[in-house]
Structure formats: structure tokens, C-alpha cells
Write a structure and sequence with these properties.
Number of domains: 1
Strand content: 25-35%
Protein name: CN hydrolase domain-containing protein
Order of helices and strands: EHEHEEEEEEEEHEHEEEEEEHHH
Radius of gyration: 18 Å
Structural class: alpha/beta
CATH topology: Nitrilase/N-carbamoyl-D-aminoacid amidohydrolase
InterPro entries: C-N_Hydrolase (IPR003010), C-N_Hydrolase_sf (IPR036526), Nit1/2_C-N_Hydrolase (IPR045254)
Number of helices: 7
Distance between the termini: 46 Å
GO molecular function: hydrolase activity, acting on carbon-nitrogen (but not peptide) bonds, in linear amides
Helix content: 25-40%
CATH class: Alpha Beta
Pfam families: CN_hydrolase
Largest sheet: 9 strands, mixed
Keywords: Hydrolase
């Protein structure tokens, strides 16, 4: 494994048009390849953003269906790995889907998949009411996958607010790079997006690649944007010039930096299980 490897985080404004979104993703893949990136991470809802909540049920399909097959072909033809966060995978019945993060290698093979664990059922202060559980099945499995870019921890959007998942990925699944595809709302993104991402990087000593939806998808939906890449010290090392434009943020994963940060501050050795503290009471 090379000591330095280039990765990219995409930023886009998906709409309720599968073909238009695929065209945007294809353009971004070309841009990433030209920049020398070997992994391109797309945001949640990259392939389809419904006009309103639940619209994705109409186009949900299995991972061997025609939409995902096109993205597998894109990875193969572009010779680049793709992180496809938040794909509407057909669920166990006709009224539910899985919000699935799919990892595809540069030969077009699906290497891993993670189904979003934490569903966005909230009344956003100053914003809209969301009830993702009405049409989405929550996943139960923590997923980490080996790659040329280190050991990748897969998550999706709202998972970001639950540090236990990221602790598990680092300390029990040996993750080195955490992938956070998202479609944060404008209100929550402005308040919490960057600080949560940097916290996850710092507390796990992992790189974080956060690909975000940006701008107005329709009259009903708007996303915060601000795709970024963060190193294990919590420093933002890749970011678009503005938080709303379509494009890519590029940075290098430096495995020697991961080793350096972890050896100088060995939190894996210092970490105590919660039971240790409760037993002392």
C-alpha cells in the first residue's frame, strides 16, 4: 500500500431525475480521475432526491438492478473506486427501502454495503419535520472494508450524531478512514456539520471523508453542503471554494500521519470500557 493515496469528496445538488444525476456523477468522476484521485465519495441521495419524503420508494431497487449496474460500469470505465452513500435499496416490503451506502471497486464490483442505522425522525428547530422511519428500514450491522485507501468505516448522514458507532469502527473494526455521505439540512448543517465531523476525526484519530448534498433540490428540500476531508488531527485538508457549488474536494490520505497521531497520543491503550467506571461507584 502506498504511503500517500489521493481521494475526493463530491458535492452536488441531486434532483428527482435518475438520468440527470447520473450525468452529474459521471462528470464528477472524470474530474476526480483528472485530479489523480483513486477513490471518489458521493453524498447521500446521489442517484435520486425526491421532491418530498418517501418519493424514493417509487424508484427503489435491488443492488443488482439497472441503476446500480450503471454506477458499477462508471467505476470500471473510470478505473476509480466509488463510495455511493444513501442509495434507495428495495426493502423487505413494498412500503420500505434501505438507505444503503455501497462501496464499489475500480473493476466495478460491489465490495461492501452498509444500511443506515440511525433514521432521521426529527422536528428541526426553525425547519421542517422529517420522519425517515415511515419509509426506511434501519440497518443493524457495523461495516468496515479493506481497500487501497486503508480500512474504511461506512456510515450515512444522521449516523454522524452517534459517536458510539464511530468508536466501534475505530476500536473494534480497525477503521482508518471514515466515510460520511450526507444530505444535512441547511439549519442543522450550519449549526453542527463541521464540528461533528471534526469531532469524529479527533476522537477516533481517523481521516473523515464527508461528501454532501448542497443547495435547493426543490421547493420542499434544501441541503447545507460543505463537502470536506479531515485528517486524524482534526484539520480540514480538503474543501470546495464554497459550500454550494457542484464539484470535488481533493486530499491525500497519509498513512504515516495516522500512525504518528496514534503513537503520540495512544488513546486506544488509554481507553477504558464504561463498565470500568460503573463498577467503581
Amino acid at each position: 500500500m502506498a504511503n500517500l493515496v489521493r481521494v475526493a469528496a463530491a458535492q452536488m445538488t441531486s434532483i428527482n431525475d435518475l438520468s440527470a444525476n447520473f450525468s452529474t456523477c459521471s462528470h464528477l468522476a472524470k474530474e476526480a480521475v483528472s485530479a489523480g484521485a483513486k477513490l471518489l465519495c458521493f453524498p447521500e441521495n446521489f442517484s435520486y432526491m425526491g421532491y418530498k419524503s418517501g418519493d424514493s420508494l417509487k424508484i427503489a431497487e435491488s443492488l443488482d438492478g439497472p441503476v446500480m449496474t450503471k454506477y458499477c460500469s462508471l467505476a470500471r470505465e473510470s478505473n476509480i473506486w466509488l463510495s455511493l452513500g444513501g442509495f434507495p435499496e428495495k426493502g423487505s416490503d413494498d412500503v420500505h427501502l434501505c438507505n444503503t451506502h455501497v462501496l464499489i471497486d475500480d473493476a466495478g464490483n460491489i465490495r461492501s454495503k452498509f444500511r443506515k442505522m440511525h433514521l432521521f425522525d426529527v422536528d428541526v428547530p426553525g425547519g421542517a419535520v422529517y420522519k425517515e422511519s415511515c419509509f426506511t428500514e434501519a440497518g443493524n450491522d457495523i461495516v468496515a472494508a479493506d481497500s487501497p485507501f486503508g480500512r474504511l468505516g461506512l456510515t450515512v448522514c444522521y449516523d454522524l450524531r452517534f459517536p458510539d458507532l464511530y468508536q466501534q469502527l475505530r476500536f473494534h473494526h480497525d477503521a482508518q478512514v471514515l466515510l460520511v455521505p450526507a444530505a444535512f439540512t441547511k439549519v442543522t448543517g450550519q449549526a453542527h456539520w463541521e464540528v461533528l465531523l471534526r469531532a469524529r476525526a479527533i476522537e477516533t484519530q481517523c481521516y473523515v471523508i464527508a461528501a454532501a448534498q448542497a443547495g435547493k433540490h426543490s421547493d420542499e428540500r434544501e441541503s447545507y453542503g460543505d463537502s470536506m476531508i479531515i485528517d486524524p488531527w482534526g484539520t480540514i485538508i480538503g474543501r470546495l471554494p464554497d459550500r454550494l457549488s457542484t464539484g470535488i474536494a481533493v486530499a491525500d490520505i497519509d498513512f504515516s500521519l495516522i500512525d504518528s497521531v496514534r503513537s503520540k497520543m495512544p488513546i486506544a491503550q488509554h481507553r477504558k470500557p464504561i463498565e470500568f467506571w460503573t463498577s467503581k461507584q
